[in-house]
Automatic annotation (TrEMBL):
Signal peptide: none annotated. This is 23S rRNA (Guanosine(2251)-2'-O)-methyltransferase RlmB. SMART domains: SpoU_sub_bind. GO terms for cellular component: cytosol. The keyword Methyltransferase applies. The keyword Methyltransferase applies. GO terms for molecular function: RNA binding; RNA methyltransferase activity. The gene is rlmB. Residues 4-80 form the RNA 2-O ribose methyltransferase substrate binding domain. NCBIfam families: rRNA_methyl_3.
Length: 263
């Protein structure tokens, strides 16, 4: 079954990936933006059907008016499976970083979280089959092209999958605004899975039980007692990124010969 993506960045990212199974690209007749030529040229170079339609037709296809005048139809999204994830982790030359989401049903939250995961150097995002939104056109739009590069792993049982990842050597860190441990007092340079739960309910009990540690983001204003999933995920991801870059820099400095070294 085919699916729809829409918006400038998702469509250009899909066109830029040779393995993306694009069927056609549809552009609104009245769009005159500079990037339209890039879309046309990429579609023609790959032999992908290109159509011009009225904007109202794109509104219907996208189910939204926020498509920026470009829509693409492509093959059904392929989720990756847990055995593929375990195999991928074994091939990495750096500490793994994964995000697992539990109970996130808002497409914008999931899409933005995908974008932040990729930008911060994450190696994949895990979603449970039930009680969490999957990859939809709205998720693709919010991800702004990240889904063409970031692998999404869909699992039947998130708690059991976290246990398997722990057995593979990863630490599981959960998030909770009421946790006594601060994010900024935690070593995040080890192989990690970070679990992001719903803003209102957090992680489910069985998922929380698999966490080696639960951390909080210290907020300056007590009346704001939590962040939405995408915002919390971005804060955590880039603190992980900061710590890992700092550790890499320190390792490089320590490996340099001192000025007094003999050759």
């Amino acid at each position: 079954m085919s699916r729809i993506i829409y918006g400038r960045h998702p469509v250009l990212a899909a066109l830029g990936q040779p393995d993306t199974p694009l069927e056609e690209v549809i552009i609104a007749q009245e769009v005159k933006a500079n990037w339209v030529k890039e879309v046309r040229d990429l579609a023609r170079s790959r032999g992908i059907r290109l159509r011009l339609l009225e904007r109202a037709a794109l509104d219907r296809l996208a189910g939204s008016t926020h498509h920026q005048g470009v829509v693409a139809r492509l093959g059904a999204y392929r989720y990756y499976q847990l055995p593929e994830l375990l195999q991928h982790l074994a091939s990495l030359s750096e500490p793994p970083l994964l995000i697992a989401v539990d109970g996130i049903t808002d497409p914008m939250n999931l899409g933005n979280l995908c974008r932040s995961t990729l930008a911060a150097g994450g190696h994949g995002l895990i979603i449970p089959k039930d009680r969490t939104v999957g990859v939809t056109p709205a998720v693709s739009k919010a991800a702004a092209g990240a889904l063409e590069y970031l692998k999404i792993y869909r699992v039947t049982n998130l708690a059991e999958s976290l246990l398997r990842l722990k057995e593979a050597g990863l630490w599981v860190i959960g998030t909770d605004a009421q946790a006594p441990q601060s994010l900024y007092d935690t070593d995040l340079t080890v192989p990690l899975v970070v679990v992001i739960g719903r803003e209102d309910k957090g992680m489910r009990p069985r998922v929380r039980q698999q966490c080696d540690l639960v951390v909080a983001i210290p907020l300056a204003f007590p009346e704001i007692n939590s962040l939405n999933a995408a915002a919390a995920g971005a804060v955590i991801l880039f603190e992980i990124r900061r710590q890992r870059l700092q550790k890499q820099g320190q390792a490089r400095r320590e490996s340099r010969p001192t000025s007094g070294s003999a050759y």
